[in-house]
């Protein structure tokens, strides 16, 4: 990642060689200037060749038949001022853009769509045996859908997301290969599919995708459906998209600085949550072990209340009659029942079942979110490459060479002359597309970064509050039942 910040959303380098384009023209950026220019496929006149070779990727063609012309600096500044006045009421700051996004994300952050997945009995024989999962989806408790899917269907959906949304926060799938008939691994896969579905259905972008709707709503054999549907769009979401002028006009590098600082702490935060999750799991395991030890004490109390040896033990005490021995046995039997009620507290509150699953699942969702963010950064490193610098240098070299040809022989109309003209046009269009894509990626990254922040903040509060509240409620119930034994 060795490009300048304006071209690379993950870099803050300012001392590198910069492309002379709209990215470096602060005036053109802030005022949203649209310099009029018509690309001619057959001819470039000399005045155009002497102008700057940089391309404004956000340029609008005000007229398809406008004649080529050289804009003076004073005219340019006046045009900028006029455009700024005309667009002033329509331009929103990025702070406002972020606020609008937060409002949009607020309806997804609380997981309005709930998912329940059950593992069905294996189907098929021998090498064709496979496991299907029954998925029940509830949308705001209003709409309910039940579909059956195989793991291979989930795997295909994940591959589709990777191609369609390479710069989005995508949930991770559990491993495909597991030990044969291993119940523990099958349970972990089921939990992983649950978290994948939960995050996909409550993501602001993924949840609106048509393929997502088909996958979780249409009860059909998904493999057959996707094979018969040859119109599935696998192109990434930036195809034929143009960067939003409001976003470009109000861009501030401070947002990228905040993002870079956050990305640098992903490993540390992920490890912190991993350690907390391990601590909570150990705590549940130790508490369960202590209660299991308590049931052994129940057995001993029961034996003591029924055994006649208690009378032989107290026979050495003078004047101890049968009634007193009976009262002692009754107390022990009563203590046994109260202690049993105390030991039944986890079962009554579902502490080692429902509460445990909910708390641990929430912690694992947090871990999965951090892993997804790290995967997003890795995909960016691989997929966001460009040759903007090389194209810009090539265009400048060809323009200089063409100017030299014109000066040496103005009337020349050679084949080489036409070829260079076409090459310049083609390269400028390619440069325009690549710059536009880089800005679209930056905007997409900012959207996902905001979603990540909103999600982590909500989960930070909800996960820890859930854990503390459930623990406090359980301790309170245990304390009450324990005091009843006194």
Secondary structure elements and pairings:
Elements (H helix, E strand, L loop, with lengths): L25 H6 L14 H5 L22 H15 L6 H12 L7 E7 L12 E8 L3 E8 H14 L18 H19 L8 H8 L4 H7 L16 H5 L3 H11 L2 H41 L2 H6 L7 H22 L1 H5 L1 H33 L4 H21 L6 H69 L3
Helix pairs in contact: 4-17, 11-13, 11-15, 15-17, 16-17
If you had to describe this structure to a student in words, what would you say it looks like?
Strand 2 and strand 3 form a beta hairpin. The relative contact order is 0.12. This protein has helices spanning 26-31, 46-50, 73-87, 94-105, 151-164, 183-201, 210-217, 222-228, 245-249, 253-263, 266-306, 309-314, 322-343, 345-349, 351-383, 388-408, 415-483; strands at 113-119, 132-139, 143-150. It folds into two domains: 1-11 and 253-486, Substrate Binding Domain Of Dnak, Chain:A, Domain 2, CATH 1.20.1270; 109-249, Phox-like domain (PX Domain), CATH 3.30.1520. It is mainly α. A three-stranded antiparallel β-sheet has the order 1-2-3.
The CATH topology of the largest domain comes to Substrate Binding Domain Of Dnak, Chain:A, Domain 2
The end-to-end distance, rounded to whole angstroms, is 68 Å
List the total number of helices: 17
Overall geometric form: elongated
Q: Strand sequence of the main sheet, in spatial order? A: 1-2-3
CATH class of the largest domain: Mainly Alpha
List low-confidence stretches. 1-73, 85-91
Q: Please trace the helix and strand order, writing H or E for each element.
A: HHHHEEEHHHHHHHHHHHHH
Number of strands: 3
Largest β-sheet summary = 3 strands, antiparallel
Structural class: mainly alpha
Bin the strand percentage. under 5%
What's the number of structural domains? 2
CATH arch. level architecture of the largest domain: Up-down Bundle
Instruction: Determine Rg (CA atoms, Å).
Output: 34 Å
Indicate the mean pLDDT: 77
Oligomer: single chain
| DSSP helix fraction | 55-70%
Pfam family, one: PX
Protein name: Sorting nexin MVP1
Keywords: Cytoplasm, Membrane, Protein transport, Transport
GO cellular component, one term: cytosol
């Amino acid at each position: 990642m060795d490009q300048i910040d304006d071209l690379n959303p993950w870099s803050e380098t300012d001392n590198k060689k910069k492309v002379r384009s709209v990215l470096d023209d602060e005036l053109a950026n802030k005022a949203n200037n649209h310099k009029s220019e018509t690309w001619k496929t057959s001819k470039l006149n000399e005045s155009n060749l002497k102008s700057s070779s940089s391309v404004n990727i956000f340029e609008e063609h005000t007229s398809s038949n406008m004649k080529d012309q050289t804009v003076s600096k004073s005219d340019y500044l006046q045009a900028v001022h006029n455009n700024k006045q005309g667009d002033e009421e329509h331009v929103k700051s990025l702070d406002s853009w972020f606020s609008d996004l937060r409002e949009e994300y607020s309806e997804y952050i609380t997981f309005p769509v709930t998912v329940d997945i059950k593992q069905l009995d294996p189907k098929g024989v021998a090498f064709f045996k496979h496991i299907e999962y029954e998925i029940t989806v509830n949308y705001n408790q209003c709409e309910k859908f039940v579909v059956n899917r195989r793991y291979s269907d989930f795997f295909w959906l994940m591959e589709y997301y990777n191609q369609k949304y390479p710069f989005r926060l995508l949930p991770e799938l559990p491993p495909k290969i597991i030990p044969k008939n291993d119940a523990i691994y099958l349970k972990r896969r089921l939990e992983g599919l649950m978290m994948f579905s939960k995050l996909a259905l409550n993501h602001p972008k993924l949840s609106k995708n048509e393929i997502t709707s088909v996958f979780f709503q249409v009860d059909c054999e998904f493999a057959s459906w996707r094979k018969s549907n040859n119109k599935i769009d696998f192109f990434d979401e930036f195809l034929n998209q143009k960067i939003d002028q409001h976003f470009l006009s109000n861009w501030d590098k401070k947002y990228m600085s905040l993002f870079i600082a956050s990305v640098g702490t992903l490993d540390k935060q992920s490890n912190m949550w991993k350690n907390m999750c391990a601590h909570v799991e150990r705590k549940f395991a130790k508490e369960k072990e202590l209660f299991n030890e308590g049931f052994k004490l129940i057995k001993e109390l029961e034996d003591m209340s029924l055994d006649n040896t208690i009378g032989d033990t107290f026979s050495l005490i003078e004047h101890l009659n049968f009634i007193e021995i009976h009262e002692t046995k009754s107390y022990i039997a009563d203590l046994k029942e109260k202690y049993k009620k105390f030991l039944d507290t986890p079962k009554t509150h579902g502490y080692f079942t429902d509460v445990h699953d909910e708390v641990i699942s929430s912690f694992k969702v947090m871990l999965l979110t951090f892993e997804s963010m790290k995967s997003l950064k890795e995909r960016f490193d691989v997929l966001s490459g460009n040759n903007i610098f090389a194209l810009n240098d090539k265009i400048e070299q060809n323009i200089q060479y063409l100017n030299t040809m014109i000066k040496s022989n103005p009337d020349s109309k050679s084949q080489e002359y036409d070829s260079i003209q076409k090459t310049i046009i083609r390269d400028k269009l390619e440069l325009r597309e690549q710059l536009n894509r880089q800005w679209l990626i930056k905007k997409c990254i900012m959207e996902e970064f905001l979603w990540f922040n909103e999600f982590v903040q909500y989960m930070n509060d909800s996960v820890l509050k859930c854990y503390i509240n459930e623990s406090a409620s359980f301790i309170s119930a245990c304390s009450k039942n324990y005091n009843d034994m006194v």
